[in-house]
Amino acid sequence: MLVDNHHRTINYLRLAVTDRCNLRCNYCMPSEGINFAKNDKLLTIEELSRLASILVAQGIDKIRITGGEPFVRKDLMVLLRRLVKLQGLHEISVTTNATLIGPHIQELKQLGIQNINVSLDAINRDTFERITRRDQYDTVHENMLRLITEGFNVRINFIALEGQNTQDILPMLELTKHFDVAVRFLEEMPFNGGSRSFDHIAWDYKRILSYIKETYPEYDQLESPSTSTSINYKIPGFKGTFGVIPSFSRTFCGTCNRLRVSATGDVITCLYGKPKMNIRDILRGENSEEKVREHIRSVIGSRARTGFEAQQENIGVFKSSMTSIGG
Ligand code: SF4
Q1: Could you tell me the pLDDT band of residue 318, with boundaries at 50, 70 and 90?
Q2: What is the best residue among 258, 300, 313 to mutate for testing ligand 1's pocket, by most ligand atoms within 8 Å of CB?
């Protein structure tokens, strides 16, 4: 079992498989893209599955595949086919922008990968195209509805971006009236939003909730697992649920159970902190299994208590895009 220096059990790995993305969301990347990692710097599918297997043997029982956009990686399904065979891994989930998932929906279903998070900051076509700078609205919409109607456990992650998409909050919420889907509104973060501020954001979770309350005065809070980052609600009579994720306010660090590995092998113990080490060359070297285990234990043994503490490492220098950090 992996336990950090604040007695938190770490059982959840967010594993990025690429830093590339086929959208160009204006808060995440410039229109020309960023300097994506060279192929030899990316962990191979074989390395990703070996790393996953070592970490699962150490106590990770939940893996979320992130990017960039995971499905731009052509061999992603090869990795997923291997992960489903790992003994002790109870849950595999994928975060996607839903542009490229269409051809893989049937196989995901066959593999039993049910949990799909769709990152979608707009329900209106113009808002979508303005934010993503791409003409993919129809594809995303169609894939999202297909995933919902095929019975996947779909969660839509919507970042409330001041001046960009807050007019879409209520129409997005209305999806939950007709469909069994969870819509979650995230606060923007300094490295994944427009504000770039570490001090203040315009739409924190309290404002999102009170804005929703103006139209839907009655909603019930739902029970959530203690490690959940979202506070979840249901409007009476609606099929789905909605939630808020205080990703800037960071109210949930006390139960944080997460470890991140970027597509190039950076090991990140807090979203707001710098990478603690890079595991790629260790994986490529001799006695890799034993050395990976040791290094992972060591970085988990020196985690920041909260995102606020971790951010001290980054004040004034935070330039990483979420596409490099890994979602
Ligand atoms: S901010 Fe850091 S410590 Fe807090 S929940 Fe996120 S990753 Fe964990």
Answers
A1: low
A2: 258
